[in-house]
Design a protein that fits this description.
It is a single chain. The chain has 820 residues and is mainly beta. It contains four helices and 48 strands. Helices cover 5% and strands 64% of the residues.
Length: 820
C-alpha cells in the first residue's frame, strides 16, 4: 500500500508539472523564425543542462515537466553568434515566456561564415573551475603536466607532485576516469599526454557523494578532445618543439556514426629528449654533501583509445572502450658529490655517480557499459572494468669514490636494481538517477579489487659478475577491496537550491613484504614475512546550498569529508637505496588521511567570482627526511598530526571588442603541525602563499590572433618541511586559421625570459638542506592541425568508467624510485 501511495504521489506531481511550461521564440535579424535551432535550458547556479529542445518551423520552442528553480536559456545555431539569456525564475505553478531571441550572424566567411566566438579561457562555476585549453595558442606544444603547472590554484613541486589550493592528495581523472598512476609514474604519463589532445581541464574542489571519497584536495579532470559531428570525420595534428633538444608529436582521430552505432578512436605519439639540472646541498652530523646533477630523459609514448556505442533502441545503449598508454623512459643522471668535514669545511673525498634507469610502462583499460534512459527522467548506468598496469625498471647505479684531488680512486660501490611491478584492477559500479519529491535523487554503488606485485631485486656488481644481495632485496604483494554505496539528492526551492549526499566506503587491505634475512645464530639466510592487514569503514557526507534569488549576486556554501589512502608502495617497509647516501623507505604504520572542508562562493554579475575555503586535514601524508648512521639519510612517508588551510580564490574576465583578458588569484594560509619525538623532530610551520594567472588575447583580423599569458607562484611549503621559493614565467604566441577554418597553425614561445626554476630549503632532524633546479622551460613550438570529413558528427558518449580511486595509487612517491 505504501508503494502504491508513493507511486500515485509521483504521478500526480508529474501531471501537475506537465501543465506548466517555459517557452519562447528564436528569430533572425529580419524577424523571421529560425527553425532547427538548439535551445538549452541551463540551471543558473552552475550552467548545467536541465533540458534540451529544438525550434520548430516558426522558431518556437518549449520545455515541459520542469522543476522549480532559476534558469538561463542558451541558443546556438550554425552561422549565428551563440546567445545566453538573463536568468529567470520558474516556480512550477505558472507558465514563463522567455523574451524573443534575436540571433546575430557571425562575421567573415566559413562556407559563408567565420566563427569568431569562443569559450572563455577560464570558467568558474559553483563546484568547479574549467580551464579551456582547446583554441588557446600558448597551450600548444606543451604536455599535460605543463598545462597543470599554469592552471589556477595548481602547483607542481620539485618532484612533480601535484597540489591544489595548497593541499596534496589531488586525484587526477582522464575523461572522468581516475588515472591508474601516482607520483613519478603519473608525472611521466602526463608528460606523454600532449596539449593538442586536451580540450579542457576541470578543477573540482568539492565533489559530490557520487564521486569516490578519495582526494582531499579534490579532483583534476582532464577532458580530451572529441568529435562533435554526424557521418564520418577525423582530424590530424603534428607538432615540433625545440629547447635544448628537439621534441615532436603527432596524432590521428576518427569518428563514424549512424542510427545504430557510433565507432570512435584516436592515436597519439610523442618523442623527445629532455634535460634538467639540479643542485643539492646538505649538512648532516659532521659532514657536508654538495651535489650537482645533470639529467637527460628520452621519453617516448603511445596513447590510444577505441570504442563503440551500439544503440539497442531509443532507451538502451551498450558500449565498449579500450584505452591505454605504452611508453618508455631512458633516464640518465650524472654528477659529482663533494663530501667535506663540517667543522673545518675541508674537502675529504669526492663521489661520482652515473645512474642509468631504463623504464618501460604499459597501461591497458577495458570497459563494458550499459545505459538505460527511462521516461520521466530516470537513468541507469552500469560499468564493468578491468585494468592492467605494468612497469619494468632496470637501474644501474655505480658510485666511484676519489680522494680530495679527484684523481685517485679510493673504492667503488656498484649495483643494479631490477624492479618489475604488476597491478591488476577490477571493478563494477552502478549509478541510478530519478526525479523524486520535486528534486533529483541519485543512488549507486561500487565494488573494486586491486592486486599488486612488486618484486625488487638488488644485485652487487663486481666487474662482469652480478650477485643477488638478499639483505637488500624484497617482494611486496598487496591486495585491497573497497565496497561503496552512496545517495545524493538535489532540489530547488524558491530562491535557493540544496544538495545533500552521503557515501559509505568499506576498505579491506592486506600487504605482504617478504624476502631473505640473515640469521647470525645459524649462519644462513631465512625467509621472513611482514604482514599488514587493515579493515575499516567510513562515512563521507557532503552538502551544498546555493542562494540564487538575485541572479546578479549569487552565493553558496559547501561541505565535504574526504579520504586519501596510502599509495601501495608507501606501505612497503623495505629500504630502497637511491645511492650510498640516500634511501627511500616505506612505512607500515602509514594511516589514511581525512579532510573536512567548508567553502563559500559568491558570483557577481556572472563575472566576478570569489571563493573562500577552509580545510582541516588529519594525519596528513608528508615525505620527511630522517637519518641513518649519522651521515646517511632516508626519505619516508609519515602522517603529520594536522594541516589547516584557508584559501581565497578571486577571478574576473574582461572583454572589449578585439581584446579579452582573464585574471585569477588564489591565496592561501597553511599551517603544519607534528611531533615525532621532540627536539629537532618537531614540525611547526606556516606560510601565506598565492598564485596568480593572467591571459591576454588579441584578435588581429584576417584569421590572426595572438596571446600573452603568465603566472606567478609565491614562496610556499612542499611536503610539510620544504620551503620553496617563488616561480614565474611569461608565454607568447600567434595563431592563423587556414583552409576556411579546417586548418590551424600555431607558433609560440614558452617562458620567454627563462625565469622558470625551483629552489628551497628544509630543516629537520638536525639536517639542513637546500636544493634548486631547472628544466627546458623555454621552448619554441610550432603545431599544425587539420579537420576532414563531415563536420556534423555527434560526439561519442562521455563515459566515466568504473576503475576508480584505488587505481591511481598504483605507485607512490614523487621521484623516480627503485622498486616502483
Amino acid at each position: 500500500m505504501r508503494k502504491v501511495w508513493m507511486l500515485s504521489l509521483i504521478v500526480l506531481l508529474a501531471v501537475a508539472a506537465n501543465a506548466q511550461q517555459i517557452s519562447g521564440t528564436v528569430k533572425d535579424q529580419s524577424g523571421k523564425g529560425v527553425d532547427k535551432t538548439t535551445v538549452s535550458l541551463l540551471r543558473a547556479k552552475d550552467s548545467s543542462v536541465a533540458k534540451l529542445s529544438v525550434t520548430d518551423n516558426e522558431g518556437r520552442y518549449s520545455f515541459m515537466q520542469t522543476e522549480a528553480g532559476s534558469y538561463l536559456v542558451s541558443v546556438s545555431h550554425v552561422g549565428f553568434m551563440p546567445y545566453i539569456s538573463q536568468p529567470f525564475a520558474f516556480d512550477g505553478t505558472k507558465d514563463v515566456a522567455v523574451p524573443a531571441v534575436g540571433l546575430v550572424k557571425n562575421e567573415g566567411t566559413l562556407g559563408g561564415v567565420t566563427v569568431v566566438s569562443k569559450k572563455p579561457v577560464v570558467e568558474v562555476k559553483a563546484d568547479k573551475t574549467i580551464l579551456n585549453v582547446e583554441g588557446t595558442i600558448n597551450a600548444v606544444g606543451n604536455d599535460a603536466l605543463e598545462l597543470l603547472r599554469k592552471a589556477p590554484g595548481v602547483m607542481v613541486d620539485k618532484d612533480d607532485n601535484l597540489t591544489m589550493a595548497g593541499k596534496n592528495g589531488v586525484q587526477v581523472f582522464i575523461d572522468g576516469k581516475p588515472s591508474p598512476l601516482q607520483g613519478a609514474d603519473l608525472a611521466n604519463f602526463l608528460k606523454s599526454l600532449q596539449s593538442s589532445q586536451v580540450e579542457s581541464i576541470e578543477l573540482i574542489t568539492n565533489p559530490s557523494a557520487k564521486y569516490e571519497a578519495a582526494g582531499n584536495a579534490g579532483i583534476i579532470n582532464i577532458r580530451l578532445k572529441k568529435n562533435k559531428t554526424f557521418g564520418t570525420n577525423g582530424s590530424v595534428n603534428a607538432g615540433y618543439n625545440i629547447g635544448t633538444f628537439a621534441k615532436y608529436n603527432a596524432g590521428l582521430a576518427l569518428n563514424h556514426r549512424n542510427s545504430k552505432v557510433n565507432i570512435f578512436g584516436n592515436y597519439n605519439f610523442n618523442h623527445g629528449l629532455n634535460t634538467s639540472s639540479m643542485k643539492m646541498y646538505r649538512e648532516q652530523a659532521d659532514s657536508i654533501f654538495n651535489q650537482s646533477n645533470r639529467v637527460k630523459a628520452l621519453n617516448e609514448g603511445h596513447n590510444f583509445k577505441a570504442g563503440l556505442d551500439y544503440f539497442l533502441n531509443a532507451k538502451s545503449t551498450v558500449g565498449a572502450i579500450v584505452n591505454g598508454n605504452i611508453g618508455s623512459t631512458d633516464f640518465r643522471s650524472s654528477g659529482p658529490t663533494f663530501i667535506s668535514y663540517l667543522p673545518t669545511k675541508e674537502l675529504d673525498r669526492l663521489m661520482r655517480a652515473e645512474s642509468h634507469n631504463d623504464m618501460k610502462r604499459t597501461n591497458l583499460n577495458f570497459n563494458l557499459n550499459y545505459r538505460y534512459a527511462m521516461t520521466g527522467g530516470s537513468e541507469l548506468n552500469v560499468d564493468a572494468d578491468y585494468g592492467i598496469f605494468n612497469l619494468r625498471s632496470n637501474q644501474f647505479q655505480p658510485n666511484y669514490y676519489f680522494d680530495e684531488t679527484g684523481t685517485t680512486e679510493l673504492y667503488r660501490n656498484v649495483y643494479r636494481m631490477i624492479a618489475p611491478t604488476n597491478i591488476d584492477l577490477y571493478s563494477v559500479k552502478v549509478d541510478y538517477e530519478k526525479n523524486f519529491l520535486k528534486g533529483r535523487l541519485g543512488l549507486g554503488g561500487k565494488v573494486g579489487f586491486v592486486n599488486t606485485d612488486n618484486d625488487f631485486r638488488r644485485y652487487d656488481v663486481f666487474g662482469n659478475t652480478e650477485v643477488l644481495n638478499n639483505d637488500l632485496s624484497n617482494r611486496f604483494e598487496y591486495k585491497e577491496n573497497i565496497n561503496a554505496v552512496y545517495a545524493n539528492y538535489n532540489r530547488g526551492f524558491k530562491g535557493f537550491m540544496v544538495q545533500l549526499g552521503l557515501r559509505v566506503e568499506n576498505t579491506d587491505s592486506k600487504g605482504y613484504s617478504t624476502g631473505k634475512q640473515w640469521n647470525a645464530n645459524e649462519g644462513v639466510y631465512k625467509d621472513y614475512d611482514s604482514t599488514i592487514h587493515r579493515n575499516y569503514t567510513d562515512l563521507f557526507p557532503s552538502a551544498a546550498i546555493t542562494f540564487n534569488k538575485n541572479p546578479m549576486s549569487q552565493f553558496g556554501f559547501t561541505y565535504s569529508r574526504r579520504i586519501d589512502r596510502p599509495a601501495y608502495q608507501d606501505l612497503n617497509p623495505f629500504e630502497f637505496r637511491l645511492n650510498d647516501y640516500a634511501y627511500m623507505k616505506g612505512n607500515t604504520q602509514l594511516r589514511p588521511q581525512y579532510t573536512n572542508s567548508v567553502g563559500f562562493t559568491h558570483t557577481y554579475k556572472y563575472r566576478l567570482t570569489t571563493a573562500l575555503n577552509y580545510s582541516h586535514v588529519k594525519d596528513i601524508f608528508t615525505q620527511l627526511p630522517d637519518t641513518i648512521d649519522n651521515s646517511k639519510a632516508f626519505m619516508t612517508k609519515k602522517n603529520l598530526a594536522s594541516q589547516d588551510i584557508v584559501s581565497l580564490n578571486v577571478s574576473y574576465p574582461f572583454q572589449y571588442k578585439w581584446y579579452s583578458f582573464f585574471a585569477n588569484v588564489n591565496a592561501y594560509y597553511s599551517m603544519y603541525k607534528a611531533d615525532f619525538g621532540g627536539g629537532d623532530r618537531k614540525v611547526n610551520q606556516d606560510v601565506f602563499a598565492m598564485t596568480y594567472y593572467m591571459q591576454n588575447s588579441f584578435n588581429l583580423g584576417k584569421s590572426w590572433t595572438a596571446e600573452l599569458s603568465g603566472f606567478y607562484s609565491s614562496p610556499s611549503i612542499w611536503q610539510g618541511v620544504f620551503r620553496s621559493k617563488a616561480m614565474y614565467g611569461i608565454d607568447g604566441g600567434l595563431q592563423k586559421g587556414l583552409f576556411k577554418g579546417k586548418g590551424n597553425l600555431k607558433l609560440s614561445v614558452s617562458d620567454i625570459f627563462r625565469t622558470m626554476r625551483w629552489a628551497g630549503e628544509s630543516r629537520f632532524t638536525g639536517t639542513y638542506g637546500n636544493a634548486s633546479g631547472r628544466w627546458e622551460s623555454r621552448q619554441f613550438k610550432i603545431n599544425f592541425s587539420y579537420r576532414f570529413g563531415n563536420m556534423q558528427v555527434k560526439a561519442a558518449r562521455q563515459r566515466k568508467t568504473g576503475i576508480d580511486d584505488e587505481s591511481k595509487r598504483a605507485s607512490g612517491g614523487g621521484s623516480t624510485t627503485p622498486g616502483q
